[in-house]
Amino acid sequence: PGLVMHQYQCNGVLAGIAICRKGFPNKMLYPEFKGRYNILAAKAVAKAKNDKSAAAAVMDVVKLDKEKFRLGHTKVFFRAGILGFMEEVREDRIGEVLAWLQAGARGKSSRMQFKKLQDQKLALYCCQRTIRNYYIGKTWKWWQIWLAIKPNLKCTQFSKYKAEYEQKIEIAEANIDKAVAECDAVIAVHDRLLNEKNELSLALNSGGSAVQDIIDKTNRLEASKNDLQKQVDGTKLRIKAEEEVIAGIQSAGSKVSADAAKLRAEISNLENDIGKCEEDKSTKDNQIRT
User: Fold this and answer.
1) What secondary structure letter does DSSP report for 66?
2) In the prediction, which pLDDT does 4 show?
3) What is the phi/psi pair of residue 96, to 5°?
């Protein structure tokens, strides 16, 4: 061991190690440092104005001695062994985050399972209550009356009435064009009659022979109307007489049918009596032969 140490000393290895320990042998660019150690102080890094401020915020959170690192213009310098310490801190932080995520996932899964079991429990309570009420209500007279009248209530036939109204709406929508056309035709007739009325009013206001012509035309129309009314009345009287004749014929036919049915019943009774007599006769003949 002494010879080995002597050789290290002669070769300058120990001096190099001492120089490295006195200096900052490890270094890292700010973007690389920020991307790798951002997890240690995410909020502080997000608020930092530049990469150097972000690196300083990370060092403050880690609470690293300022003698063990230096912040340069483009890089972060570390003394020997500090970079390994930073990796250990980073791994611990990653473990904490993973544990937090795992705990959140397990908590969510447990709450979902608990909610499912709770719903099942409430459903069982509901089923028990329903079954219990059903068996209680089976012997309750008011409940039996309600079950008897419930099918006849309109409130229980909502789907039926809904379907009927929907069908009526479809029919109305299908015929709405026809109704609009008829309405337009009526409006056109109304406008035409209104124009004729206006013309007649002008003619009446102007006076002269046109008024007398209109009066004569009106009288003729009234006379024609009276004749037609008389014809209609006569036709109605004939129709009424024909209906009375038809009613009499139908009543007579009903009476004849009733008489025919009565005669058929009497014939059937007579045939039954004849059959009985024939049986008695054959019985007497057999007795005589014997």
Assistant:
1) G
2) 62
3) -65, -45
Among 91, 66, 90, residue whose Cα is nearest residue 79:
66
Best CA proximity match to 24, nearest among 103, 83, 108 = 83
Top-ranked range on mean pLDDT: pick from 91-95, 149-153, 223-227: 91-95
Q: What is the CA radius of gyration of the chain?
A: 58
Contacts of 23 (CB under 8 A, 6+ apart): 79
To the nearest 5 percent, what fractions of the chain are helix, strand and coil?
90, 5, 10
Distance CA 34, CA 153 (A): 76
Q: Looking at the whole model, is its pTM more than 0.70? A: no
Please state the rounded mean pLDDT for residues 43-61. Answer: 83
Evaluate whether 48 touches 59 at the Cβ level (below 8 Å): no
Collapsing DSSP to helix, strand or coil, 65 comes out as coil
